[in-house]
Amino acid sequence: MRDENNIVVMEGVTFTYPGAEQSVLNGVSLEIKRGDFVAVIGGNGSGKSTLCKTLNGLIPHYYVGDYEGNVQVNGLDTLKHNVAQLSRHVGYVYQDFENQLIRPTVLDDAGFAPLNYGFEDYMERGRRALRLVDLQCDPKEFIWQLSGGQKHQLALAGAISLDPDILIIDEPVAQLDPSHAGKIYDLLRNLNEFHGKTIIVIEHHTEFIAEYCKTVVLMDAGRVLWSKPVKEALRELRQLEASHIFPPQVTQAAAKVGESGNVQGTGRTGEGIGEYPVTLEEAVQYFGRFQGEHREEREGEGEAVDPLGSLEIVNSTMGLGDSISSENSINGSEPVIEVKHARFSYRTVTRERKIVLDDVSVTFNPGDLVALVGNNGAGKSSFLKLITGVTKPEAGHVRVKGVDTLRTPPEQLADMVTYIYQNPEEMFIEDSIRKDVEFFLKARSVQGYERKVDDILESFGLTELQHRDGRLLSGGQQRRASLAIGVAMNPSVILLDEPTANLDIATRKDITRLLQQLNRHVETVIVATHDMQLVAEWANRVIVMHQGRMIRNGTRESVFADADLLELAGLTAPQILELSRSLGMPQLCYTVDEFAQRWKAAGRREALAHGVCT
Amino acid sequence: MEYVRKLMDRVSVEGVKIELLNTAYGNGDTFLAKLDPRTPFLWYLYFGIAPWFIHDVILLFGLFFLMALTTMMSRVSPLIIGILCLGLLSQAGYLLIVSWLFGGGGETILPLLKLTLKLSVISLASITVFCSMDPEKLSDGLLSIGVPKQVSFGIAYGYRMLPSLLEEYHHIFLSFRLRGKAPERHGILYLRSIVYFLKIAVLSFYPLILSIAKRTRTTVEALETKGFSYAYQSPEVKRIKLSHMKFTRRDALFLAVSVIYVAALYVLAAQFNL
Question: Where are the transmembrane segments (chain B) (predicted)?
């Protein structure tokens, strides 16, 4: 007999999209318990979204491909019930959730499904859904006036308006800034714990998985490899790595430190190799235990033997510790970009003016790798656009290499400045990658551009894809192509808007690597981003924006060490940095490698000191 | 030169987007906007068609006056009025030239001007009706008079997509500018620059079409999961959806005033023609 506790039972499900040659699902068998909070993980193309679409009947009813197997959802056979019937049991929030909002106003959209199902009280149901997702705005507000986070909440409201037992959310974190992502997960937890919903998320961010989920399902090449409790799952480091999933930073750190066989550095084998921490709290305990031992032993030895203090070397070898020449250039040369008292505002639909940049003054010099951070709507994109010349400051001025943007059309500034869109698709104006990369050079009739294009395509790994249409590539390939388009313009300044958004972590690492190579081609790189790991690993100068002003302009240290600032600007420091802070290490660690290196070095010193003492 | 630049700054894609949205949704609090959508339809049935069959100049002027009044009441965006004026002026101008070329005099121009007057009455009536109703109201109204559900849904959805489409178009347009090369000299009467901009304005549509096609996939799936096609046949859903519509005293007042005004006009016109 079927287990009543299972809300989803899949048996031997195989599916091939119509017209495709390879099957996307290859005999998937899976059981999901009622009330569970499941994360489905796996590399790109492993079949995660397809798996989820078999649950609400889109497969096999809407996508009529080759389908085999049996799926039971809440006791219903998906073959015998149509999408509309199954949708009352399964709510679905897409990754590109904006396209799932159908009606023009908030309450209308939330109540759309109940209306279609003929509920007299559809408005009330819509309102209830809005309350459940805690969307606090005028119910008559137009959806294009909402922020990205609010739109996601609304999509969620639409999905739960029919009060389904199962909710599927495809990559909630990808499109949202970290504080909004946290909010969405808090909501999901609330729905899971207090309203008994079974939640299924497709997720790459293992730090969120560790904190919120209960079960992890790993997929690879259309198969479910396993389904395990979250802690156990995240400790399967080797298998995760094979699927390009990166475990939480703290887990990676514990593994790195443990690799040499001595968690504590003193030669004692770590007793809990299988017990790697997966959340920050666990990690603080895990590492703190050994640190505690150090501390006790160290007491009375004075400051001189502080095991973690003498590691500035690590910092300077990474080329990041040098003080930032934020206002005066290093060798007296001209600043690359000079912004003085710039002001910018735009008209809203209600014909009011909204000020986005208010009296901003800043200069950028050769060699600056700038991260521009701050929550959505802080004015980051508007600032970048001022530098490109597509928008002009209302007051003050912006000069790029001495050229005033006010009097210069963007076409002319393009010889010096490249702007890379957040959404790479908006950069594909031709029908193949190669033509897109050529566009700028061809327009300027550069001699022998073909060779140059070949080289660039090669260095971005796009040679194979050069004749494909950019829009049909995967997210990571699109991002690489957009970078290649930018580099082909041979600019002095590259501006990037959210270059790592929407990517799985493996691709993100790839892009970070490409960004690190950019400064060989360009003088100044400015990146507007929410990705604090990117900030920590890449930038040598960080600017924090808040409500149209720059509230901090300095080093990584000056930003990440300032908890109030982080709070005000809605930023979340990388987990590894929080760990080093919580452990009271004298210097904050920005990467896992840095942490492991320091921890081990401290251990060795400790061992040495220990040896001398005894 | 400076004026042209300032004008170009003002006629930005962003500005057009705001005007369009305002035209569609921004006038929800006017007297006309609060009418039941069926009332303006009824009203339009007369004012949109009758002028074709009226040849009396006094009557036409009277109607024109009423239409101008209702257009003002519906607080139409200046953009729309601008486009309308441009259309009417160019038409009048062309009529003038044609009649002059073919040796016509005042007696040919007069009937032609009468036609222009008719056209403006009808145009203003259309503007009054369609600009005072937001797309939601319009689509509910159409649904209630028996237009198929797909059409009325399409209108509402089209407007919901409008801002994002314009935004995306703007981005693509800027992509062309950020990588392209503008002519170095503007040319006679800015001709070169105008040709350059027109060219990228047209080229920008191609990438837009492709990306819309991609977006639509999610939307269609979402419609499916939200039971849109499930509700398609159900008259019950239509009833619930339209249950908020009802005629009020405001509607009666609006229709009554219009009828009295038109009746008075006829009396007046009849007296002049005696």
Answer: 41-67, 79-102, 108-130, 188-209, 252-272
